[in-house]
Amino acid sequence: MLFSKMLIPTLREAPQDADIISAKLMIRAGMIRKVASGLYEFLPLGLKVLKKVENIIREEMNNAGGQEIILPLLFPKDLWLQTGRWNVYGKELFRLKDRKESEFCLAPTAEEAVTDLISKEIKSYKQLPLMVYQFGTKFRDEIRPRFGVMRSREFLMKDAYSFHTDEADLDGYYKKMYDAYFNICNRCGFKFRSVEAASGAIGGDFSCEFMVLAESGEEEITWCNCGYGANSEKAESIIANCIQEKLADMQEILTPNVSSVNDVSKFLGLSCEKFIKTMIYLADNIPIAVLIRGDYDVNEIKLQSLLGLNEIVLADEETIISVTKSPKGFAGPVGLKNIKIVADLSVPEISNAVTGANKKDSHLKNVNYKRDYNVDLVADIRKVKKGDICPKCQKEELQFSRGIEIGHIFKLGTKYSKSLNAKYLDADGKENSIIMGCYGIGVTRILAATIEQSHDDNGIIWPDNVAPFEVVIVPINYAHQQTKEVTDKIYEALSSKGLDILIDDRDERAGLKFKDADLIGIPYRIVVGEKGLLNNTVEFKHRSYDKNAVKFLSPQEAVKEVLKIYKR
Ligand code: ATP
Ligand code: MG
What we know:
Elements lengths: L20 H8 L3 E5 L2 E4 L1 H20 L3 E2 L5 E3 H7 L1 H4 L6 E3 L5 E4 L4 H11 L8 E10 L14 E11 L2 H21 L4 E6 L8 E8 L5 E5 L5 E3 L19 E4 L6 H8 L7 E8 L2 E8 L6 H8 L4 E3 L2 H8 L15 E5 L8 E4 L5 E6 L9 E3 L19 E15 L1 H5 L3 E3 L5 E3 L1 E8 H11 L1 E2 L2 E2 L10 E5 L5 H15 L5 E3 L6 H11 L3 E5 L1 H5 L3 E5 L7 E4 L1 H11 L3
Parallel strand pairs: 3-7, 15-17, 17-20, 27-28, 27-29
Antiparallel strand pairs: 1-2, 4-6, 5-6, 7-8, 8-24, 9-10, 10-21, 11-12, 11-21, 13-19, 14-15, 14-16, 18-19, 21-24, 22-23, 25-26, 29-30, 30-31
Helix pairs in contact: 1-11, 2-6, 2-11, 12-15
Bound molecules: adenosine-5'-triphosphate (ATP) and magnesium ion (MG).
The site of adenosine-5'-triphosphate has 18 residues, from strand 8, strand 21, strand 24 and helix 11.
């Protein structure tokens, strides 16, 4: 491929609104262009990488026994009403009407469509298990589209759906897909972790996310060397610093104008671990009291799923006053009536705790579980924090990293098959709901995540497997006959082995061509120049952090080197 014939509009500067390094570099390298907020065009170079990633994923899906299909992008409202997601999905769902005023949505995922298909086509246990997948555009009206194609409103996803007769079969298949995702991440060259996750709007009982490690990642993940991993919504821990003491008598103490845990702890000279924070929440509009140890924070997602709520928000001052009979900052569980009290596991463990007295400017000291207060429910509802111990090995301290979620796999159970009536007849002729799994991976997001992990000041550094071209040949002067001959020979030798090679044939300064080659990030560069050819050498360099890793090879050796690297 000749650079001069390709649409690769590189830019020296990134546009002002490009807000993350991968977005800046994708635009500067001429891979994508922005049309509007969260909407991008893929140019030839961007599409080439997208196709490489797509092929890696396709191979892994086929290895896992998947069959590729295409589902529509436009879905009728009816199906979505049947699963309840028409209402649950909220504003993220793009909705529209046709000329007959019938309502539709644009696919944010495709569980409804695929389950409907399967309900019509699968009748017997003999047709199961089955996995189908597609590469399809997804539409989500994100609150804050940002970070280029990382969080866009229209993006390419590979979504796969598996169908089983029983849970055990799903469990086995889920493991297989987990391995396939593991392979995809490795083949794309990622440093990553797989973590347990909450299932969100897609639903189901169990899910796992694949997180690419990057400082710019929107997610916080928790992991341990023993193999434990979870995202911040789901992470668990063994509570740190639990000190048991002999129970003392409860005492009221005056704390004038001092209400936050930090301030009261300073005021009393007691550590935050001694405090019970009492937060009043509105749980689907009903006030509840939530207790948590002073040094922890409430994990609202855990709380929401524990109580099966649609919405959980902190209560307004008026509600707090009506529930606790005191202003904000003095709530406590002792004597709190007519309200459900949920405590984190860290709370009953505190002996001689300090807590609000449900009275302005007052706290209680030496408060003890069961003796002085009771609760309706004790469960893990806290966010893990530095210093906590891993729940799996129960030895090491948990580690924290930032990550980009690129894939999410779910055990769905019968959530969709029940509502859409997808059943099969078992060997005894009995009807059962089909058990499902679903498996998503963001193809466009993978590109951005790769660049976040692999770039330097000069541009992108593509891992070998996903690079748009395997080699760029830079003739210093393509009009020079011998330079052209050698360039074309190398090109032929490599192309004939199925490698994708770019020749920068442009009539430009060598410096500019090198700059563009670095920006675009093609892993290997061969420079052909008149001077070198006098000694029958070309320059061979990996697009790596190491600026000095240049080798001078004969054209034949350079070809051999590349073929060795790409195992051709
Ligand atoms: P996030 O928490 O980042 O919004 P999600 O949990 O909504 O992601 P899923 O519904 O599990 O994502 O979708 C599967 C995959 O699709 C994600 O792992 C991600 O790679 C990709 N994806 C999701 N939303 C977007 C988006 N707005 N832009 C680009 N890719 C996305
Ligand atoms: Mg989302």
